[in-house]
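Risk register update: the risk of archive-format incompatibility is retired. Evidence:
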Amino acid sequence: MAADLGAWICFEDETGQGLRPPNGRSWSRHGHRPLVRVHGGQHGARVSVAGMVCYRPGHRSRLIYRLPHYHRRTGERVSFSLAEYKRMLQAAHQQLPGGKIVLVWDNLGIHRSTAMREFIDAHSDWLTVFHLPAYAPELNPAEGVWSLLKRSMANLLATDLDHLASMVKHRLKVIQHHPA
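Archived output:
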């Protein structure tokens, strides 16, 4: 369908990165004791990333992402809002030559919401959406980007949330500029 429309096929997914490693300690070589104790700071603050990997024959692949971070303040959302998804889709429409998008994403509640459906219908001239089947991450190439991101950050220790956000942004730029 994307080829018939002359559109980009874009796969969207989300991930997150916190300050604290899963076991509460910093990483070290196998068999060696970790040297730095990590306390996680800022009560579970994290950086969330939503991104789209975009493909079109005859063009280099693209990675478009948004990276807000959350401080876990009272009333603050800990996931992407409808407005943030809309802004990301509109930015992709502007950045991709030709601007037509066939979007493939998972069944996250906000992706299937009435408000998102209204947005998609209002932009049907350039946006067509398909949903992946449940529990099928192997069908989404964006999962590979998150795997690369997490592996590249395995031994890095961020001092605070802003430092973590800049590290994630830097790693995504490296992936973005080396699409292979």
